[in-house]
Design brief:
- The chain contains three helices and four strands.
- Strands 1-2-3-4 form a four-stranded antiparallel beta sheet.
- It has one domain.
- The chain has about 100 residues and is an alpha+beta fold.
- The chain is globular and about 35 Å long.
- The chain is about 40% helix and about 25% strand.
């Protein structure tokens, strides 16, 4: 199955030491939820929030599509992932390119 379709339908992907999940956040206690991508790194045993901006959609489905598009831009090398930890971001990018291109 295509990785974008799998992420969109299942809500997560597992690739070589990382788990990628689609989620929603309302950290600012807004009534609206913000689409997020979270990443679990097996090496550090920690979760990270992808800090790259994801455009808010008008519907839940559009939010998910926008999140997948941002991840696709990272895979294609159009933008760098920002997980708040440079080492984790760099390893994540290498694994994405090796497994999803």
């Amino acid at each position: 199955m295509n990785w974008k379709k799998q992420l969109r339908e299942d809500g997560y992907l597992e690739i070589q030491g990382f788990r990628i999940e689609l989620t929603l956040d309302n950290t600012f206690l807004d009534l609206d939820y913000i689409p997020r991508i979270i990443v679990y790194d097996e090496k550090t045993s920690r979760w990270y929030v992808l800090r790259n901006p994801i455009p808010k959609g008008k519907t839940l489905e559009e939010n998910w599509d926008n999140a997948v598009e941002v991840l696709e831009m990272i895979v294609k090398g159009e933008i760098e992932p920002n997980l708040g930890d440079e080492d984790v971001s760099n390893r994540f990018l290498r694994v994405l390119k090796r497994n999803l291109l």
